[in-house]
Specification:
Helix content: under 10%
Shape: globular
Number of helices: 1
Mean pLDDT: 93
Number of strands: 17
Radius of gyration: 22 Å
Largest sheet: 17 strands, antiparallel
Order of helices and strands: EEEEHEEEEEEEEEEEEE
Distance between the termini: 52 Å
């Protein structure tokens, strides 16, 4: 409905330098930094600071039922746009973001990518979801690998509008996936140290393992736990 901008922009067919604050009826954003050789995905270089304040994602994306308001700060610096060859670092603090009619708070991350290898550290310190995540992997053509460890201090899915019943979960999830493509899934998933609270009753769970393999055009998924064994082939 309204938009105004204050600041400086210097641009050419290949380079862009900006220090500008854009204020709109859907929020305010500050963009400060430089982008050079942006027309060449391999030679492009970037160094940007972005601050978003009360950005109405639901209105902008025309989906207010799913997305809410975003307030965050991001920094990115590096070269190249192709994830297989890019070298870059990125970090961010999401003070609040609305999703599925819940406002998540206190999300932090930092990560890097170099010649197809990536790594990231992230955490959420929200009243209804508290966890730390460490992950790394490799972009290799059309396949992407993922190794991660997530320590879940607590998650309350009912408050996050994910389940109809009140549940509290605590545990550790570790994954070693050589291919995360759902059509060619390969790897292992291990869940340990799990505690589940439902209807006020506390249950200690033993380890749960998930194994996936895709070879010769056949997908195998196997689930093993003390109370269940399941296997799917096809």
């Amino acid at each position: 409905e309204s938009i105004s901008a204050v600041g400086k922009i210097k641009a050419s067919m290949h380079d862009l330098v900006s220090d500008i604050t854009v204020s709109t009826s859907q929020g305010t954003a500050k963009l400060k930094g430089s982008l050079t050789n942006y027309s060449n995905p391999k030679l492009a270089k970037y160094d940007y600071f972005i601050n978003a304040n009360n950005i109405d994602l639901g209105t902008i994306m025309k989906d207010k039922a799913t997305y809410g308001i975003l307030s965050a700060t991001f920094k990115v610096k590096g070269s190249g746009f192709d994830p297989n060859t890019a070298n870059a670092t990125a970090s961010g603090v999401i003070n609040s973001v609305g999703y599925n009619k819940y406002t998540y708070k206190n999300i932090k991350f930092d990560g890097s990518i170099a010649n197809g290898n990536y790594s990231t550290n992230a955490s959420i310190k929200d009243p209804n979801i508290n966890l730390d995540l460490v992950a790394n992997g490799v972009f290799n053509g059309k396949y992407t690998s993922l190794n991660f460890t997530a320590n879940v201090d607590s998650i309350k899915p009912q408050e996050l509008h994910l389940t109809p019943q009140a549940i509290i979960y605590h545990g550790k999830v570790e994954g070693n996936l050589t291919n995360i493509d759902p059509d060619n899934l390969n790897g292992n998933l291990l869940v340990t140290n799990s505690v589940l609270v439902t209807n006020g009753e506390r249950t200690q769970l033993d380890s749960v393992r998930l194994f996936a393999d895709n070879s010769n055009g056949q997908q195998l998924i196997r689930l093993q736990s003390p109370f269940m064994f399941a296997e799917i082939k096809g």
